[in-house]
Amino acid sequence: MIELIELKKEELMKNRGYTATLSAGYHMLADNFKAIFRHIWAYALVFALVMGAWTVFETNFENPEDLEMTAMMGVKLLVAVIAVIVVAIAFSARATMLLNEQSMRWNVGRVTKLLGFSILLSIILSLVVLALVFLTVGAESAATAAVAAEGAEIEAMQPNAATGLVQMFFVVGVVIILALIFYLPFLYTVPKYLVETESKLFPTLFGKYGRGLRHWGYIFVCMLLLSLCIGVCSIILMLPMYVVQMVQRLNQVGMLGGDESGLPSWFGWLNFGVSTVTYFVYSFISLIELFVCYYIYGSIETRHREKQLITTE
After folding, report:
1. Position 7 in a domain
2. Which residues make Cβ contacts (< 8 Å) with residue 83, sequence separation at least 6?
3. CA atoms within a 13 Å half-sphere pointing along the CA-CB vector of 291
4. Structurally, how many domains does the chain consist of?
5. 232 lies in some domain
6. Residue 106: in which H helix or E strand, if any?
7. Is 193 within a domain?
8. Which of 1, 36, 123, 162 has its CB surrounded by the most CB atoms within 10 Å?
9. What phi, psi does 260 have (nearest 5°)?
10. Is the pLDDT of residue 139 over 60?
């Protein structure tokens, strides 16, 4: 049985400007916060608990030997990664139910396919970056530059290391810009795949990619403005968590140098509690990004239909 949620929201199929798109996404969350909270809080809590445990797992240890990649550490890491992926899929599927009014099971299937696609795309992009770095900089210079980037002094480098470092950063910077251009149209095709229940994965993501690319500037400005707003809120929200983690890592540096831990035994629980509360609150803030992309899709779709009407007349 599908759990239907009655939400107050602006008309989807409407041609909007940048600020109107952001405003529609914000009001979809603000005007329906109680209903959305009841719908998603349990999933947000589980997500926050798992992310809090992940934070403790990656920052907490009692002696330097705990950092060694043993078989048991590998198993723990694998279990932790799987847990994070599962709860992320569940939370995302629960959130997308607000857009398409389909069942949780149906949305889990769609979100899982999108996650697999994004992982595959990220792997391909990483391989492209590595290939370009080695082709333009050279294997020896890239290796030396990588060591230098980890903290070696410029004066201690080989003669071509500094140049290799600059070239490597330049290539990576260019690839990041190209990746930004490449990824932004998916912010139209992904919501389209989630909202239009009869759509197929690859025909939608790539078949309609050109339509998103033609509105790249609109998507870019919307996401830039959204990132500035979300970024400020995120910095304020996550500052306590970052402070706790910084203290934890500074303690680790001392332990690696042979010192005893200077933190109380309950500090790990403090880290877990602060991280859990932070991720729980952030999970609701992140919904604005989903809703803004939802209205980006509606605006681009409306512009396309209006253009078709003009050309047919």
Report:
1. no
2. 50, 53, 54
3. 26
4. 1
5. yes
6. helix 104-136
7. yes
8. 36
9. -80, 160
10. no
Question: Distance between the two ends of the chain, CA-based, in angstroms?
Answer: 44
Range of the domain at 56: 18-312
Q: Assess whether pLDDT exceeds 60 at residue 149.
A: no
CB 164 within 8 A of CB 144: yes
Helix axes 71-100, 33-59, angle to 10 degrees: 170
Q: How far apart are CA 137 and CA 163, in angstroms?
A: 9
Cα–Cα distance between 168 and 109 in angstroms, integer?
39
- Return the pLDDT at 154: 46
What confidence tens digit (pLDDT) does each residue in 230-245 have? 989 999 999 999 999 8
For residue 16, give Cα distances in angstroms to 25, 34, 210, 237, 308. 12, 26, 20, 30, 18
Residue 105 lies in a domain: yes
What angle, rounded to 10 degrees, do the helices at 287-312 and 186-195 form?
Answer: 90
Q: What is the pLDDT of residues 66-106, one digit of tens each?
A: 555 556 667 777 888 899 999 999 999 999 999 998 999 99
